[in-house]
């Protein structure tokens, strides 16, 4: 997938089919739109394009970082992705100019695929009806998608954020179509895990929404391989509240002994093993870690 950051380097594409949206979360509704655009582009010998926006236009916490989002979009066989830097200046563009100057002028769009609840342009005045009306003026097609529902509830990024924060990861997974996951960079810690006998990789997450504190069974994706792992999220209460005030994310990867500082890992959450606890001694903590690994 070719990635364009901004519109200045864009060129006219062959029969471009563009899917528009923030696509935060890449949930089942988003995937439906993107996959349909990719199929249509193949049918007409065109180019499928995802247009997304960063940072979030409504300043919402990110379910996925931009890099993670782009990785997931690429898996849907989309040919190109345009990342629009959502600055205050861009936020002031009118819906009419967005269509005329960007969709038509820069991309030469053939068809636009979009959720029917998509809003765009200054003060979010543009909507699906605006696209339909101006598509007739500028001679392109529009395909709208209704909001998907699971168990009678509409799928939305807002709802998924709430589920993740509450620890309802299985419910979030049903709406995402994949396990809740974190993409982050391995950073240097204080080697506490190794001192306890269980080396861990300390993770700096690339985004804001992470599951609640606790211990989780996870899959760890590093490069092109996937490993079993145990992930801890918490403030290390056994070691004293004063020393560790912020939340740590660290993962023990089973059957793995490489040093990977500065590399990125994806942690996919499968099941919560237990909540965070303060142990009376380090020896009790070590015994519990052994039980957690056995449980995984």
| Count, helices | 9
Helicity range of the residues?
25-40%
Tell me, what's the shape? elongated
Radius of gyration: 22 Å
N-to-C series of helices and strands: EEHEHEHHEHEEEHHEHEEEEEH
Distance between the termini: 35 Å
Main sheet specs: 6 strands, parallel
Low-confidence stretches: none
**Full CATH superfamily name of the largest domain:** HUPs
CATH class of the largest domain: Alpha Beta
Give the number of DSSP strands. Answer: 14
Trace the largest sheet across and list its strands: 1-4-3-2-5-6
* CATH-scheme architecture of the largest domain: 3-Layer(aba) Sandwich
The quaternary organization reads as single chain
For this entry, give a set of tags:
14 strands; Elongation Factor Tu (Ef-tu), domain 3; Rossmann fold; 30% helix; alpha/beta; 296 residues
């Amino acid at each position: 997938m070719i990635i364009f950051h901004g519109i200045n380097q864009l060129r006219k594409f062959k029969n471009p089919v563009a899917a528009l949206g923030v696509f935060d979360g890449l949930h089942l509704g988003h995937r439906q739109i993107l996959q349909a655009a990719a199929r249509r582009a193949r049918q007409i010998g065109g180019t499928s394009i995802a247009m997304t926006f960063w940072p979030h236009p409504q300043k919402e916490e990110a379910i996925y970082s931009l890099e993670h989002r782009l990785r997931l979009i690429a898996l849907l066989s989309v040919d190109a992705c345009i990342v629009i830097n959502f600055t205050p200046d861009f936020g002031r563009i009118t819906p009419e100019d967005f269509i005329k100057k960007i969709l038509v002028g820069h991309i030469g769009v053939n068809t636009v695929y979009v959720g029917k609840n998509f809003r765009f342009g200054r003060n979010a005045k543009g909507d699906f009806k605006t696209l339909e009306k101006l598509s007739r003026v500028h001679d392109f097609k529009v395909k709208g998608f209704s909001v998907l529902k699971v168990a009678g509830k509409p799928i939305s990024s807002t709802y998924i954020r709430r589920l993740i924060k509450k620890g309802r990861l299985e419910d979030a997974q049903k709406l995402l179509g994949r396990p809740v996951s974190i993409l982050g960079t391995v950073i240097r810690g204080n080697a506490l895990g190794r001192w306890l006998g269980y080396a861990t990789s300390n993770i700096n997450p690339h985004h804001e929404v992470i599951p609640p504190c606790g211990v989780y069974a996870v899959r760890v994706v590093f490069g092109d391989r996937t490993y079993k792992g145990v992930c801890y999220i918490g403030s290390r209460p056994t070691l004293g509240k004063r020393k560790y005030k912020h939340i740590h994310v660290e993962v023990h990867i089973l059957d793995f002994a490489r040093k990977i500082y500065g590399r990125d890992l994806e942690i996919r959450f499968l099941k919560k093993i237990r909540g965070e606890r303060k142990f009376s001694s380090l020896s009790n903590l070590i015994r519990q870690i052994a039980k957690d690994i056995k449980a995984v």
